[in-house]
UniProtKB/TrEMBL annotation:
The organism's place on the tree of life at top rank: Archaea
Protein name: Lipoprotein
Segments of skewed composition (Acidic residues): 45-59
Disordered: region residues: 29-96
Source organism (scientific name): Natronobacterium gregoryi (strain ATCC 43098 / DSM 3393 / CCM 3738 / CIP 104747 / IAM 13177 / JCM 8860 / NBRC 102187 / NCIMB 2189 / SP2)
Amino acid sequence: MSRRNSGPARSRRAVLAGSASLLALSAGCLDDGFDDASGPGTGDENSDDEETADDDGSADSDASSTDDLVEETHTYQQPDVPESPNATVLRDEGDADAWLEERWDVGEPDDDLVAFVEETAFEDALLVALEAEGSNLCYEMGLEDAELDDETLTLEAEVSDESDADEVCAEQVTAAGLLARVPFASGVAPSTEFVAEIVDADGTTHERRADADGESDE
């Protein structure tokens, strides 16, 4: 698991060394990428489950499967524990570099995480970062489902203890995170809105949403 990778991280891209103004702008925008829409439930749950049947009895839906929408995921842990679950859309190398710099202002990201970010061709895909508190180093964020419907991409994720029955976990509160690589070939477009439904370690569901420009959306 990525939490056990303590090898030296790769050096930052040249963008980090030479664009302080970009970092300042990006850091100010990243935390506003998704609006907090948490609540005791997801609201209109019954309407979400309703589908209109065609004459042949099949459901009429534009939803796509998780495998079609998310090309690959990578779990990670980082020391900047969020006050509540959050999600950030990374659309280009500048966003990605600023995100890495902001999250690891102390310490370094592991090599596998840096490689995952660097291998992303942002002309063909974007990254969505999901994070929540983990009670110890055995907690991880896992992607449960992804659905594209009515120009809205919904990612469902959950934080859980992934330790074996006989495994001893280091008692350190950390941010359990997940990066999801979403290819444009999946149907995601510049007009796509993003919704993240994150179940935290206590079992509470938190909803975050934003439009494709990363601006908060009520």
